[in-house]
C-alpha cells in the first residue's frame, strides 16, 4: 500500500501500513512510524534529517491514521516537544525516569520479608492463568482509581488468549492460593527496567510491594546488576514514595502527548 504527497522538493511516501518515508532525490531523509501498543493505542515516532520535513511527515500520518494518536517525548527535548505541540498534540501525562539501586545496604530492603501468609514466586514460577487473572484485576483497579490516562503501558487492558503473559518476566506475591501482587522486569540491555509493580487494592499498604522489590532487587544484586530503571507517573504518589524510600534517584522524565 502506497500513497504519495509532494511538499517542496521532498516526497512523502507511505511504504507500509504504518511506515512513511520522506524522500529527496530518491534518498530517504526522514521516517515516520506508528505502532500499536498492547493497550490498543497508536503511538507515533518521527525521525528526520532535515527539520523542515517534520511537519509534512506528521501531517501525512495524521491524515491517514485514526485518532486519538499518541507520542512520547523526553522532557529535556524542548525543541521536539514544541514541534509536536505545533502539530496539535497536548500533554496527557508525565512520568519520571528513576534509577533504582539493587544493593540491600543502600535500599534498606535486606531485612524485608513477605507479610505473614504471603509467598514470593520468583521469575518463571507463576502460572499463566492466575497471572492473567491478576493482570486483569490490576488493570481494572488502575483505571478505576488513577484513570485510563494514567494506565501504565505495561498493563494490558486487552489481554486475551491471543496475548500470552510470559511468566519468566514476572515475580508474583501469592496468598492463600491467590496472586495478590506482581513485578514485571523487562530485560533491557545494560540495565533492566521495572515495567510494572502492582498490588491488588485489598492488599495494598501491607508490605507486599516492598517484599516484591526486596526479592527482585536482592536477586539482581547477587547476580551482579547494580541498578535498574523504573518509570513512575507523576500522579502515582504511592509508587513515588515507595521508590524514594529505597534510594531511587530521578534521572529524567517523559511526557506522553495526545491528539484527539
TrEMBL record:
Cytoplasm listed as a keyword: no
Annotated Gene3D superfamilies: 3.40.630.30
Example GO molecular function: acyltransferase activity, transferring groups other than amino-acyl groups
Swiss-Prot/TrEMBL keywords: Transferase
Limits of the N-acetyltransferase domain: 118-260
InterPro entries to which the protein is assigned, alphabetical: Acyl_CoA_acyltransferase, GNAT_dom
Taxonomy, superkingdom: Bacteria
Annotated signal peptide: none
Keyword Transferase applies: yes
Stored Pfam families: Acetyltransf_1 (PF00583)
Name recorded for this polypeptide: GNAT family N-acetyltransferase
Species whose genome carries this gene: Streptomyces xanthii
Amino acid at each position: 500500500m502506497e500513497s504519495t504527497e509532494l511538499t517542496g522538493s521532498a516526497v512523502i511516501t507511505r511504504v507500509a501500513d504504518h511506515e512513511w518515508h520522506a524522500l529527496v532525490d530518491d534518498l530517504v531523509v526522514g521516517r515516520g512510524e506508528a505502532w500499536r501498543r498492547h493497550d490498543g493505542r497508536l503511538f507515533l515516532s518521527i525521525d528526520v534529517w532535515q527539520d523542515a520535513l517534520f511537519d509534512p511527515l506528521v501531517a501525512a500520518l495524521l491524515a491517514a491514521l485514526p485518532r486519538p494518536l499518541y507520542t512520547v517525548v523526553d522532557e529535556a527535548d524542548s525543541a521536539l516537544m514544541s514541534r509536536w505541540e505545533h502539530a496539535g498534540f497536548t500533554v496527557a501525562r508525565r512520568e519520571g525516569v528513576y534509577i533504582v539501586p539493587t544493593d540491600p545496604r543502600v535500599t534498606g530492603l535486606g531485612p524485608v520479608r513477605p507479610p505473614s501468609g504471603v509467598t514470593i514466586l520468583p521469575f518463571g514460577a507463576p502460572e499463566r492463568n492466575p497471572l492473567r487473572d491478576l493482570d486483569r484485576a490490576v488493570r481494572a483497579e488502575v483505571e478505576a482509581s488513577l484513570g485510563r490516562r494514567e494506565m501504565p503501558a505495561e498493563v494490558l487492558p486487552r489481554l486475551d488468549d491471543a496475548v500470552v503473559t510470559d511468566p519468566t518476566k514476572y515475580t508474583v506475591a501469592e496468598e492463600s492460593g491467590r496472586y495478590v501482587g506482581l513485578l514485571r522486569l523487562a530485560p533491557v540491555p545494560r540495565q533492566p527496567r521495572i515495567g510494572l509493580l502492582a498490588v491488588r487494592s485489598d492488599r495494598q499498604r501491607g508490605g507486599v510491594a516492598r517484599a516484591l522489590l526486596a526479592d527482585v532487587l536482592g536477586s539482581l544484586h547477587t547476580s551482579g546488576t547494580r541498578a535498574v530503571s523504573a518509570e513512575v507517573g507523576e500522579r502515582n504518589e504511592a509508587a513515588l514514595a515507595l521508590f524514594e524510600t529505597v534510594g531511587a534517584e530521578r534521572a529524567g522524565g517523559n511526557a506522553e502527548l495526545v491528539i484527539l
